[in-house]
Structure formats: structure tokens, C-alpha cells
Design goal:
Layout (H helix, E strand, L loop, with lengths): L2 E8 L3 H12 L4 E4 L4 H6 L5 E2 L1 H9 L3 H4 L8 E6 L2 E6 H4 L6 E2 L2 H14 L3 E3 L6 E3 L6 E4 L2 E10 L14 E16 L7 E5 L5 E5 L5 E7 L11 H11 L10 E15 L2 E2 L2 E3 L5 E2 L7 H20 L5 H4 L1 H24 L7 H16 L1 H12 L6
Parallel strand pairs: 1-2, 1-10, 2-7, 4-12, 10-17
Antiparallel strand pairs: 3-6, 4-5, 8-9, 9-10, 11-14, 11-15, 12-13, 13-14, 15-18, 16-17
Helix pairs in contact: 1-6, 1-8, 8-10, 10-11, 11-12
The structure holds flavin-adenine dinucleotide.
């Protein structure tokens, strides 16, 4: 006989762990199946900021103390244009709504600890996960057994198995931009920093008190930053950030990110619901990937709780449409932001360079433009 539970959650990233905690706090039973081991999940470094909307989700669920206590709030974003600093005060243009600076691995570690310490059932190294009968009585099999559930949440990221159980249409876009990203033992900047210049885009974000993550734009196909000596990367960072005195440091991690966007529609099929990167990939511009994962999980949790308490499935049935509205809003914002900071480079044609400059200038002289930017950075509930 298979085991039974209310919800099987596949994947223990930000989406799966947020959902698991929200269900647990509402006494809905769930089992989380995670392909990797605990240390891999807890150490994976990616995003650095939970937007204001995400912070409110944890506060409303009574989880703020457990997951974001003591984390500093975002204030200024420094946009350095050709070496000239411009400070954008997002919270001032968004009614005081500020993001929370919390590295993804810390958020994941805290969500994981809270769920497991509260008696949650999280099974690591779950190999061979497969979904069955998702339009009737869903079952999930894996190397450790078989679980029957009322609902399945596919939170297993872009490379997971869940989205392949949905007859869907995929939308993809290649931005034609690559980022070489390095994590270094280098003091964090005072504020999140983006360098816009004719030499190409660069950025520096703090990752805790002694480390920074740096980004350098490159041309996929024409250059391979994996061949760049570290000295060259530091030289390019100093040039593009307009800071000849930028201190270097030991590089502890290197990654290539090719800027691609992806959305699968619909995000639900029968009793299977996708959340986070399983349904959409967004470029890191605007820092919305982790935040979309948390927002999907929150909306899904509310809809599942409502259905499982015997109310109705109305919210579950509108889950896909609601989450897709936010997803496309954020995709559009991310593309808008990507063009503004990348098209300024000498690699762009002169017309696009001037468009990018006009977009940038408008942020600092037009309140409506500043308010739009700040609202998207803070995250929005307006789609629900
Ligand atoms: C270099 C980089 C920088 C980024 N920067 C930012 C940023 O600044 N801001 C931001 O908001 N976002 C950023 N992102 C995006 C963000 O990290 C993701 O959007 C976020 O991790 C999505 O969470 P998720 O839970 O949906 O998926 P994931 O974090 O991918 O978690 C999915 C989980 O499912 C597990 N899994 C996969 N397949 C299976 C299977 N078959 N069975 C069981 N488990 C499975 C995986 O092991 C994983 O633990 C960045 C991403 C990268 C790569």
C-alpha cells in the first residue's frame, strides 16, 4: 500500500520550502522529496535579496523571526554611469517598502531548519522521482517508495521532472547576453552597485560581511570568460565599476550565466501545480527569481489550504492565471532593466545606446518613472 499525505512537494529550494512551512503552520500534511543531500541544498549560493513583498509573506505567516530576523533592509541602489555615482532610494519612492538582504542559502537553511525542527517530513537524496495520475488521484514514486496525495506541488526547478507532466506551451527568449559571475572574499560595497559604461556592464553585491558577488557582462559565442585569468576579471571590474582602487580578493566560485528567460503555460494540470523555477526562469536583472518562487508558493499554499479544509477549489483553479500575470509583469520588468544597463555599452548600436540613456535619465528626473521602478523592485500584490 502506498503512503498517503495531503500534498507531495517535489524539491526543497525556496519554492518547496516556503510551501512546506506554510502548509505545516496550517496543519496540512505534506512530504517533501529532494533529489540532493542536505549540505548541497543548504550551501547553494544564488540570490541575495528577498523583496518587500516576500518579506511580508513570511511576516504574515508568523515566520519572520524564524527566517528573516536581524536581516538588514535594502536602501540605496547605486547605479554608476560611466564612473559617475547615482543613488536610487527605492523605499523612498515605494512608500517605505524595502527589501530584506538575506542570501538565498541562509533563507533556505532557515526554512529547512524550521520545517524539520517542527516535525516536517523532508526526504533528501530521493532518486528517480516520477509523477503518475496527476489528473485523478496523484501518486509519486521514487527509489524509497510510493506516496499518494490529494495534490502535488512541482517545485523542482528548471531541470526537474514535474513540468514534463503538463501538456504545456513553453515561451523562451535568449537575451544574447552572458554574465561571468564570481564570488570573492572581497569587502561588500556600501550599497548594491551596478556599473553602466561603454566597456560593458558590471555589478557588485554584498554576500555577508566579508564576501561579494561580482558580475561581468560578456558576449556568448564570441568570448569565453572561463579562459579569463583572475587578474583580467579584476581589471575589467575596476574599469567598468569606475573604481581603480577596488580591492581584489580570493575568488571562491565562478559561474557562467547566459541570460535566458522561460515561461511555461499553464502552471497547473489537474492536481499538479508548478511553483518557482519549475515554471519560469527570469534573468537576474531585477532580482526576481527567488521572489517569484516565494510568491508562487504563498499563493499556492493559500489555495491548497482552502481546498483541503473543504471550502472550494476556486483559488486552486485560478492559481496558474494569477501566477502567470505576476510572472509576465516581472519578465517585462527584467527585460526593461536588462536593456537599460546593457545597451549603454560600445557593443550596442548608437540608437539603442541613446534609448538606454534616456531610460536611465528618466529614473532620476521623473517621479512616475522612479515610482514604477521602485514598485517593481519592492514586489507587488496587485496581480491577485
Ligand atoms: C547565479 C544565479 C544568480 C541568481 N541571482 C538571483 C538574484 O539575485 N535574485 C533572485 O531573486 N533570484 C536569483 N537567482 C534565481 C534564484 O536562485 C531561483 O529563481 C530560485 O532558486 C528558484 O527557487 P526554486 O525553489 O523554484 O528552484 P530551485 O532553487 O532550483 O530548487 C529546486 C529544488 O528541486 C530539486 N530537484 C530538482 N529535480 C528534482 C527531482 N527530480 N526530484 C526531487 N528534487 C529535485 C533541486 O535539487 C532543488 O533543491 C539566481 C540564480 C542563479 C543561478
Amino acid at each position: 500500500m502506498p503512503e498517503t499525505t495531503d500534498v507531495v512537494i517535489i524539491g526543497a529550494g525556496p519554492a518547496g520550502l516556503t510551501l512546506a512551512n506554510l502548509l505545516q503552520r496550517n496543519e496540512i500534511s505534506c512530504v517533501v522529496l529532494e533529489a540532493r543531500d542536505r549540505s548541497y541544498v543548504e550551501e547553494r549560493q544564488r540570490a541575495g535579496v528577498l523583496d518587500h513583498y516576500g518579506g511580508e509573506i513570511f511576516a504574515a505567516a508568523g515566520l519572520a523571526d524564524a527566517v528573516i530576523a536581524g536581516a538588514p533592509r535594502e536602501k540605496f541602489l547605486e547605479l554608476r554611469y560611466a564612473g559617475e555615482p547615482h543613488f536610487f532610494d527605492g523605499p523612498a519612492h515605494a512608500g517605505g517598502r524595502a527589501g530584506v538582504i538575506v542570501p538565498q542559502q541562509l533563507l533556505v537553511r532557515r526554512l529547512l531548519g524550521t520545517f524539520v525542527d517542527g516535525g516536517g517530513d523532508l526526504r533528501f537524496a530521493a532518486a528517480g522521482v516520477a509523477l503518475h495520475d496527476v489528473t485523478s488521484k496523484p501518486r509519486v514514486t521514487y527509489a524509497g517508495g510510493e506516496i499518494q496525495a490529494a495534490y502535488v506541488a512541482g517545485c523542482d526547478g528548471f531541470h526537474g521532472v514535474s513540468r514534463h507532466s503538463i501538456p504545456s506551451t513553453d515561451y523562451t527568449f535568449d537575451h544574447g547576453i552572458g554574465w561571468y559571475t564570481v564570488l570573492a572574499d572581497a569587502p561588500p560595497p556600501r550599497h548594491a552597485l551596478m556599473g553602466i559604461s561603454e566597456h560593458g556592464f558590471a555589478a557588485q553585491f554584498g554576500r555577508g560581511p566579508t564576501a561579494s558577488r561580482f558580475y561581468l557582462e560578456y558576449r556568448p559565442g564570441a568570448e569565453d570568460p572561463r579562459d579569463w585569468p583572475d587578474d583580467y576579471a579584476w581589471q575589467q571590474l575596476r574599469l567598468r565599476l569606475g573604481d581603480p582602487a577596488l580591492p581584489g580578493g580570493t575568488i571562491t566560485d565562478k559561474e557562467i550565466v547566459e541570460m535566458r528567460s522561460f515561461v511555461t503555460e499553464p502552471m497547473a494540470y489537474g492536481n499538479l501545480f508548478l511553483a518557482g523555477d519549475a515554471a519560469h526562469i527570469i534573468t537576474p536583472m531585477g532580482a526576481k527569481g527567488m521572489n517569484l518562487a516565494v510568491a508562487d508558493a504563498d499563493f499556492l499554499a493559500k489555495a491548497l489550504i482552502r481546498a483541503l479544509r473543504g471550502a472550494d477549489e476556486a483559488a486552486l483553479r485560478s492559481y496558474s492565471d494569477t501566477c502567470l500575470r505576476r510572472t509576465w509583469d516581472y519578465q517585462e520588468f527584467s527585460r526593461w532593466f536588462t536593456e537599460m544597463v546593457h545597451d549603454a555599452g560600445a557593443r550596442s548600436d548608437p540608437f539603442r545606446r541613446r534609448l538606454a540613456k534616456a531610460r536611465f535619465d528618466r529614473l532620476f528626473r521623473n517621479e512616475a518613472a522612479a515610482a514604477y521602478f521602485a514598485d517593481m523592485m519592492a514586489g507587488t500584490a496587485s496581480v491577485e
